[in-house]
Each structure stands twice: as C-alpha cells, then as structure tokens.
Task: structure prediction
Amino acid sequence: MPTNEPKMPARVGITDLTLRDGHQSLFATRMKVEDMLPIAEAMDEVGYHSLEVWGGATFDTCLRFLNEDPWVRLRELRQRFVRTKLQMLLRGQNLVGYKNYPDDVVTEFVKRAVGNGIDIMRIFDALNDERNMAKAMEISKAEGAHVQATISYTTSPVHDVDYYVRTAKTLAAMDADSICIKDMAGILSPVAAYEIVRRIKAELDLPIQVHCHYTSGMAAMTYLKSVEAGADVLDCVSSAFALGTAHPATETMVATLSEMACSTGLDLRKLKGVADYFKEVRKKYAAFDVGTMIEAGVLIWQIPGGMMSNFVSQLAQQNAGDKLEQVLDEVPRVREDLGYPPLVTPTSQIVGTQAVLNVVMGERYKMVTSEVKNYLRGLYGQPPGQVNEELRRKIIGDEPVVTARPGDVLEPGLPEAARQAAPYMEQPEDVLSVAIFPQVAIKFLQERQAKRTLVDYELQEKTRTEGLMAPV
Result:
C-alpha cells in the first residue's frame, strides 16, 4: 500500500486537450475537423500520454453549427492517430447532452464511442453523484476502455479534502482505472491540490490525473504542487491555445518538469511545430475568440469561462447588459439554495440561467426554469449539500422528490429515437445522435440526405451528358 509520504513520479504524462477542451474554452468549440487532420500525424509523433479529441461540447457543436457528423470526426481522427491513445469527456448519465438519458441510450453510446476509437473514457457527474456515473463506467469497462472516474472540483461549506478523498475511494471501489480531479473553473489552489492529491495517493494505488483551467492564473502552480504530491498525469494544451479560460501550455510544463526529478519524455522541438501550426489555425476563429485574459473574480464566482460568455449573451438579449455584476453576485446565492453543486455542464447552465432570471425579473424565483424544477425534483441526482427546502416547496409544492438513481426512473429511449431516425439513417450511430439531440440531429440528418440526393442527381446528369457526347 502507498505510504503517507508524497513521492513525485519518475515520469509525468501529458494529456493534450487542444483538439477538444482547448478550443471549447477559447472559441466556442468551433474548430473544424479539417483544421485538425493536417497536424494529426505530427501530434501522433510527440508521445503524449493521450489526446482528448471528443466529448464535452464537441458533439453538439458539430451537429448544430459546423455541419459535421461527430461520429465521422471521431473515425477520421482515429485513422490518423495510430500511436496515441484517444480519450473523450463523458458527462456520466448526461453523456454529451444536458440531461440524464436512459440506460439503453447510455449503454449503446458508450459501446459506439469505444468501437469508433475511444481508448480512455473520462467520466464525471456535475453533482459528483456516483450513481450517475455507474452505468457509463460499467459499460466502458466491459468494452475494454480505460475508465477514468472524475471528480468535479469546487469549494463550499460541504466540499473539503475529506469529501474528495471519500469520493475517490467510492469511485475506486466502482472499478475505476484512474482518478481525475477536474477543476473546470480554475479555482483549485496549489495548497489544496497538494493536500487532495497527497491524501488520495495515500489511500489508493491508482494513477491520479489533474485537469485545471488557467482562468484565475493559478493552474501552472497547482500542477507543480500536484506533481510534488504524486500526480501522474497533467492536462495541457499547445501554447498556441494556452492560458485564459483554457489550460497551462504543454511546452512550459515540459520545460519546468525537466528540471525536477521527473520527466515527460516530450521533445520541445516537436511541440513547437505543433504550436506553429495552431497559431495559424487560431486566426481563422477570431470572431469567436475570447482571448487569454486572467479573471481573478472566478475565485469568488466560481464561474467557468463559457458560462461568462453565456451571461453576456443572455443579458444582451434582455437589454440588461448593465446587470452583469448583479448576476455574478447572484450566482453564489442560487448555488447555495441548490445545495452547492459544482458549476459544470449542466449545473452551470441551471444555476446561471436562474441567476439571470432572478436579476432581470427583479424578484428572486419569480420565474423558474424547468431545469431548476427538475433539479429540485431530484431528476439530476443528489446535490452535495442541503437544498433550501422552503424554496423546494415553493417551486414544486408537494410533488415527491426522486431519491432513486435518476436513470432508474427513465423509460428506454432507443426505440423512439430509431423511429425518428429511420427515414434518414445511414449508420447505426444516427439513432444515438437523435436520442441525445432530437431536433438538432434530425435537422442535420435531413440536410445530409438532401445533400446526398443533390450530389447523386448531379452525378447522374454528368454521366448522362457525357454519354450523349461520347463519340460513336
């Protein structure tokens, strides 16, 4: 068993997030696969621990904005990355969506994700409710993937070091292959990281990976203290996409760790080539780019970068742009009312939208979203802390609160999704796209079919015309 004395690993792995969380954090997940494929071979030669290439918001954005099939993207990346493990971010029972999906959908999605090329499944739940992670972990393990059980980091009266150690031990007992500490808001301090990693390593003989955003400016320091406490893998991005609401730069961490008693095994020259490429790619997405400013206010608000841009957009639509500070101050109050959920998809949207409504309406909870109602009904899972019961009764009255695992109260979802997808289906994965995003996916499938029909017609016309013109 591990000792209580922290020990730095001889080698620290680097997971590169450039192709997923990097551009999700900086320019709204808008990078197209056409800008990923030309650099794939060079990235495959670097020697990363893994590459995060899928999951999170990429699935939705591909269908909704980029006119890309996310399943095709995964297969194309898998074909080009022959040496490096590929991983995805999976929101537990939420999959890549914003609510809990039935077990049949979760099961089939995980099977297809692994079958199309995912090696490592990073699985988390916004409430750290392990019941919402259980099915995805079970199926990932059965399909032969590495199961990285993930703890969403936050601070509150109920989130202390003991809480994180208990959660890690529970996930280890659920047959996790590794543990990830996910700091989506960039608020994990170096001191807290050291103590959490040290304690978990003392209790568990599992690899520990640390994921931090740079929003508050602490992430690189947090990484160093995590390594001193025994962390095995760090999440970074190419320097071309680093800092701000993104993550520490790979090159910086490689250079720093090379002077410590551990090594990443990565070559700065190869990393520079990757960065040079992405510097040019980033210019193409300037219209979406939020830049790399440090926002220390996140230490008070705990708001992930994407949540801030949503606030600005929502308030602009209400002609209430001057109320941003009031909304930011309202977020911690709503979060306390809801039992201190970590602010990560979908709870960041649930808390954030309600905070906007509370401010814009001029009265707290005068208007309540359906998501808050479902949250208070227990349909998202067990909150970490105590929900404001007076508020719960005000909003849902005497309705019973679901205390079972949320997935247990959902009817199967694949039969109806298959029925809706049937007229447009070209691959089994189309059913899953429809199951998760019915309206968006069906629109995508309809447009794909129309495009195929047009191409077939043009090809037929070309063949017919060339036939008429052929010499006799």
User: Anything to note?
Assistant: The CA atoms of residues 154 and 342 lie 5 Å apart.
